[in-house]
Design a protein that fits this description.
Blueprint lengths: L3 E7 L6 E2 L5 E14 L5 E11 H10 L5 E15 L2 E15 L3 H10 L8 H7 L28
Parallel strand pairs: 4-6
Antiparallel strand pairs: 1-3, 1-5, 2-3, 3-4, 5-6
Length: 156
Amino acid sequence: MNRVMLVGRLTTKPELRYTGANLPYSRFSVAVNRTFTNSQGQREADFINVVVWRKQAENVCNFLDKGSLVSVEGRLQTSTYEVNGERRYRTEVVADSVQFLESKNARTQQSSYQGMNDSVSPYDYQQSSSTNSISVEDDPFADFGDSVTIDDDFLD
């Protein structure tokens, strides 16, 4: 069975291209964190090449940007080609499905948090922001009493 499932962030903004038969496709790379840390205690990442076709390619290019969190399902494919008489190999994931795991709004808010003081959580920022306030009815943690922060490492 040849099946690949990835969760990671796009390393660049995807670009839409077309084959000679006018078939849309896009190639991009996804940074996927490893589940362990290196000897310095830092988490390393693998950069996985992905190709997506047809309507999914158009959607990826229209709605995703560098840093977008995605889930990719597909199959692993290896191909060969020649450059100046030298044989080269390419291994990539041919995506059957690319799922967007965060909204553009969440991505914009996340970039806002990076410059903030560590003592302020994203939840606190949302509550204090006049344009992004959360009503008690929409807040699943309203009865919790404390703010809830979920670290990005939780997803790994």
